[in-house]
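Example for tutorial group B:
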C-alpha cells in the first residue's frame, strides 16, 4: 500500500525537514530528566511547544494526544482531501501506543493523595489506550474502522501492518495510521526496575552498551491504494513465545520476521539498501539482532539504530522509525545520504560484524529499499519493508 504523506515529531525535531537534517548530521542530543515528571531518569523528551487540544475535546487533553495533533497538523490538508475523495465512512484509523496519557493519570493520583480530590481537569479518557483513537475520530469526523494496537515496542509497526490489511480487504480506501507514546514515570520506573536503562546514553552494538534510553514522539501516515512514490512493500511478523521480556537468544524469530518481509515484498536480502535496526543497546536485544541480521545480510548491507538520536519511543517507535526510513528515501534527501550509527565505535567481539554506517558514508547512486525492525516484549517481532513503488 502507498504512503501518501507523513507527519512526525520526536526529540530530533517537530517536522520532516528538521528531523531528517538532524538525523543525517548525526546530531546527538543529551538525554535529560523530564522535569514535568519529577523523575531523575534521563530520557529524550520532545522540547517543542505542542498544540492545544480544542476545548470541545477537553476530555482528551493529554501530552500523548497533543503530540499526535502536532504530527497530524503536518498532513491535515492531505487527510481532508482523502476524506473528501473517499468519504468519511471509507477512511480508517489505526494507532499504536503503550503509554497513552498515563502521565496525566499519575499527576491526578498525586493530587488525589494530597487533597483527597481528583483535579478538575482530569478525565479518564486522557489515559485510556483507546483515547487517542477516540480523539482523532472526533477531531476529523472519521466514520470507518478505528482502533488501537498495543503490543509495547512493536505497537505502531503492527498498526501499519493492520492498516494495510484494512485496505487490502476492501474495508477502507484510505487509513490514517501511526503511533504516539509520551514519557511517564510508570514506564521509566518499570524499565529501570528491569535493569534495562542506561544512566548515560544509548550505545547500541558496542561492547560497552549498558541499556537503552527512553524517548517520546508521534508519527502519522496517510495510506491509500492510489500510486505514490513510497509504499509499504512488505510486512513480516513472528512470535518468539520464549520469555515475557527477553528475546530468543539465537535470533531465529527475528530472522523469520525479516525473511517474511522480504518474501512479501518479493525482494532478496541483497536488494535492501538500509536497515533501521531495533538497536536498543540492551545486552540481550543487540546480541540477538546482530545474529539475525548477520545471518541474512552479513556485514555489507548498510544499517544503524536511530535510538541514540530519538530514544526508544516504545509504542511510537515502529511508526517513527518507518517515517525515518521514508524520509531518507524521499526528495528531502536528494543526495541519498545515510544516517550515521551513533555509538562509541567499540564493537562487541562476541557479536557478528554488521555494516554500521559511519558519519562519512553516503549512498549517492542508489537508495531504494529500507527495512525497519521492531522487536517487542513477549517476542512480538515486526519487520517493515518500505521502498519506491
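The residue assignment follows.
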Amino acid at each position: 500500500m502507498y504512503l501518501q504523506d507523513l507527519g512526525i515529531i520526536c526529540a530530533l525535531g517537530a517536522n520532516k525537514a528538521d528531523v531528517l537534517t538532524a538525523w543525517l548530521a548525526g546530531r546527538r542530543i543529551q538525554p535529560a530528566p523530564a522535569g514535568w515528571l519529577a523523575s531523575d531518569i534521563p530520557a529524550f523528551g520532545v522540547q517543542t511547544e505542542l498544540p492545544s487540544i480544542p476545548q470541545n475535546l477537553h476530555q482528551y487533553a493529554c501530552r500523548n494526544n497533543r503530540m499526535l495533533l502536532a504530527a497530524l497538523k503536518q498532513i491535515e490538508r492531505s487527510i481532508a482531501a482523502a476524506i473528501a475523495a473517499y468519504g468519511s465512512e471509507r477512511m480508517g484509523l489505526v494507532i499504536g501506543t503503550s503509554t497513552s496519557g498515563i502521565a496525566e493519570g499519575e499527576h491526578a493520583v498525586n493530587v488525589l493523595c494530597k487533597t483527597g480530590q481528583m483535579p478538575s481537569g482530569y478525565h479518564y479518557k486522557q489515559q485510556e489506550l483507546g483515547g487517542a483513537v477516540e480523539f482523532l475520530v472526533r477531531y476529523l469526523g472519521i466514520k470507518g474502522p478505528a482502533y488501537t494496537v498495543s503490543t509495547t515496542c512493536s505497537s505502531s509497526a503492527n498498526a501499519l501492518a493492520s492498516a494495510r490489511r484494512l485496505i487490502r480487504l476492501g474495508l477502507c480506501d484510505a487509513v490514517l495510521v501511526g503511533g504516539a507514546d509520551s514519557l511517564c514515570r510508570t514506564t521509566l520506573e518499570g524499565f529501570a526496575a528491569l535493569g534495562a536503562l542506561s544512566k548515560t546514553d544509548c550505545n547500541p552494538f558496542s561492547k560497552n552498551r549498558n541499556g537503552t534510553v527512553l524517548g517520546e514522539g508521534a508519527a502519522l501516515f496517510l495510506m491509500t491504494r492510489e500510486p505514490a512514490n513510497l509504499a509499504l512493500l512488505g510486512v513480516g511478523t513472528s512470535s518468539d513465545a520464549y520469555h515475557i521480556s527477553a528475546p530468543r537468544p539465537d535470533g531465529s524469530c527475528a530472522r523469520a520476521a525479516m525473511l517474511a518481509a522480504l518474501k512479501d515484498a518479493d525482494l532478496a536480502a541483497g536488494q535492501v539498501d538500509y536497515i533501521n535496526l531495533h538497536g536498543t543497546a540492551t545486552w540481550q536485544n543487540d546480541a540477538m539482532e546482530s545474529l539475525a541480521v548477520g545471518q541474512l545480510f552479513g556485514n555489507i548491507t548498510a544499517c544503524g539504530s536511530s535510538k541514540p538520536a530519538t530514544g526508544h519511543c516504545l509504542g511510537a517507535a515502529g511508526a517513527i522509525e518507518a517515517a525515518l526510513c521514508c524520509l531518507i528515501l524521499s526528495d528531502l534527501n536528494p543526495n541519498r545520504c545515510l544516517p550515521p550509527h551513533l555509538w562509541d565505535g567499540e564493537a562487541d567481539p562476541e557479536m557478528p560484524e554488521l555494516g554500521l554506517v559511519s558519519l562519512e558514508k553516503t549512498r549517492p547512486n542508489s537508495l531504494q529499499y529500507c527495512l525497519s525492525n521492531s522487536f517487542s516484549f513477549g517476542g512480538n517481532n515486526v519487520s517493515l519493508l518500505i521502498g519506491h513503488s
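The longest strand covers residues 230-239. Compare this with the pattern of hydrophobic and polar residues in the output above.
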